[in-house]
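Q: Mind making up any chain with C-alpha cells?
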Amino acid sequence: MLNEVKCLSRVLLAGNPELIYRLLRGQGWRLWSGLSLIVLLGAGVYGATIGLWRNPLQALFAGAKFPAVVFLTCLGNAALNGILAQLYASGLSFRQTTLAILMSFSVASLVLLAMSPLTLFLMWNTPPLDSGGARTGHSVTLLSHVGIIVFAGWCGTWRLYRLLNYVSPSRSNARSTLVAWLAGNLLLGSQVSWILRPFIGNPNLPVEFLRDNPFYGGFYQQVWKSLVQLIF
C-alpha cells in the first residue's frame, strides 16, 4: 500500500491531466484509501506543527483536526459540487467530481507536508508563549499559516484546473466550474476550521480540543483582527 501511495503522490504532483483522468475513470477503494492516507499524513503532520507553538497537546489535537477539516469540506460539498459540475458541463460525473476535489486536497496536503520543516523553523523563531511578545507571536503564527495554506491550496487548484481543461468542452466551462467549486469549498472549509478551533491556541485560553462556543465569531473576523494587531 505504501508503494501505491508513493506512486499516486508522484502522479498527483506531476499534474499530467491525462494520467489523472485515467485514475478518475478507474474503480475500486484503493484510490479512495490512497488519497485519504495522503491527506491524513500531509494535513496531519502540518496540523501538528500549527499547534506546537502553543503546547505539545495542542499539536496532537491540531494534527487530528486538520485532516478532519479537509474531509468534512470535501464530503460536505460533494452533492453541491457534483450539481455544479453538471450545470457547467465539466465532463465529470458526481463520483469523479468528488474524487477530483479530493485529489486537489491531496496535492495541497503533500505541499503542506513539504512545508512542515519551514513552519517548525518559524515556530522556533517566533516569540514564545511565556514571553512579553506572545500576542505578536500568535498573530505572526496565524497569518503565516494562512499564507502557507493558501499557497498549498493554489497548488492543488492549479492541478484541478489543468484536469478540468482536459475534460471540459471549453476553457470557459473549466473556469466556471473551478470558480464555483472554489467559492463553495472556501466558504465551507473556512467555517469548518473555525468551528473545530483551536488549532494554534490562544495564549490567554487553556489548551482544549474544542472551544465552549464553537459557533461564536468567524474565521475572517479573526484573520482581520490579527492583521490589524500586527500592523497597528
